[in-house]
Amino acid sequence: MIDALAFHTASVTNVGLARAHNEDDVLVRPDIGLWAVADGMGGYGGGDVASGAVVAALRTLAPSVTAAQLLAEFEQKIVRVNADLRAMAHARAGAILGATLVALMVHGAHFACVWCGDSRGYLLRSGKLSQVSRDHSEVQELIDRGLLRKEEAKTWPRRNVVTRALGATDEAELEIVDGPAYAGDRFLLCSDGLTAHVADDEIAAMLAAVHPHTAVGDLLQLTLERGASDNVSIIVVDCREADATPAAGGRRDLGD
Prior knowledge:
By secondary structure, the protein is α+β, with helices and mostly antiparallel strands. The chain has one domain: 4-Layer Sandwich (Phosphatase 2c, domain 1), CATH 3.60.40. Helix content is about 30%, strand content about 30%. It is built from seven helices and eleven strands. The strands form two sheets. The protein has a six-stranded antiparallel beta sheet, covered by helices on one side. The longest helix has 25 residues, at about 65-90.
């Protein structure tokens, strides 16, 4: 029986080919089982400040005894940084200062994926790719209501409009999926700069690479070849055997 997992991580954040500044930020903390991608909104001096504040807050997290403690402390950090972003925006006369977030926590043999906005979390397990997160976006809402087909989403005029973001409202609206983690699982966290150019079947094929660094490099290269119209950030996390009883899980909203 597996009580803990070891991790092998590769990550990159890139300005892309169309933007002057990188408003994405990434966090890699295998020492505590935490990884995150924050995608800033608000332009230079806004989006980069917001994503940097989110990552800086999460960087101060200490190792936790339990998965519940890690999640609770994560949520506390997000609540505080959300309030800080609101205060900064108010001080800047209502300037846009926000960020989407996707984070992965693995503790023992249990994982939790937490997100706000359209940065995504994926899981490759036994050769099958699944999207763990679900976009908080106008496009996704239209798809869910049967008013828009997935094929139409790529060219929809308001495809970049998110319905949740840190700093956008007084309450941080997070969503979470949790469940068992197994040796051999490979997680992907990314900003929408990747998924705007690379389809899920292509992601699955590249994630199948033997080494996480190869997967990250191939995904970035394909995005750049296709124009990289936005900043792009990618984290790949391999779970490796090192012993816990997997816990059952599901999805729930936090802060609604």
